[in-house]
Amino acid sequence: xxxxxxxxxxxxxxxxxxxxxxxxxxxYALPSDxxxxxxxxxxxxxxxxxxxxxxxxxxxxxxxxGAGRDQVQIFSRRGxxxxxxxxxxxxxxxxxxxxxxxxxxxxxxxxxxxCVISDCRAMEGILSxxxxxxxxxxxxxxxxxxxRNRESGIFVFAGAHARVADNRCFDNHHFGIxxxxxxxxxxxxxxxxxxxxxxxxxxxxxxxxxxxxxxxRDNQHWGVVVTPDARPNPAxxxxxxxxxxxxxxxxxxxxxxxxxxxxxx
Length: 265
Known about the structure:
The protein is mainly β. The chain has helices at residues 31-37, 239-242; strands at 17-20, 43-46, 49-52, 55-58, 62-66, 72-76, 82-85, 90-93, 96-99, 108-111, 116-118, 121-123, 130-133, 140-142, 145-147, 154-157, 163-165, 168-170, 177-180, 187-189, 192-194, 201-204, 208-212, 215-217, 222-226, 231-233, 251-255. Residues 245-265 are annotated as: Disordered. It holds the Pfam family Beta_helix.
């Protein structure tokens, strides 16, 4: 289960690399099995394959590296496949997370954590595909695909100050990215939100965010929607200059006190 293999990615933390491969009896069958044995500075490497698993990580750093989001899929029928709670550091990359159950769960759930999640995919959540929340949430969520979720792609709320950058959010049933609640203030930069069934980005219920260099195109409604109590930076009148909000049938941006009227809320 511990390999001296030059093809494995280096572990910058200096610990061991534990390998997951359901087809190799020398390896761990599931990522959660490897995580149970991993010490603080160890790394988990997941070889190509589809794994039915549910990963819960709390109060410890994590380094979970997949062979690529087109090659490694972790899915769950009973709850979201990835749940992080107060994770103080590390990285998760190169994995597709898919929820295939019928209850209200997200594909990626991050509470009060500060790790990096990159080059992953979050898909088919019954709620939003990715939820980032809690006043200590400083996660960096970058370079990911978030698609085909029943609500919004990425939902940032409950005071989170996440960095959401360089992601593509598409084919979600509500918004590409949504932000809610007083004290919530993520940096949302260089994301591409397209082909979502409502608008590209929503700020509502006192939510704030830095919105810069985002591309919100070909959504069913607007490029960006904000409510009068929201706190976008720059101001609503300057969002068109700071972001590419073209090719949305209802227009580039709008300020409205009923942002969820079209879905009966």
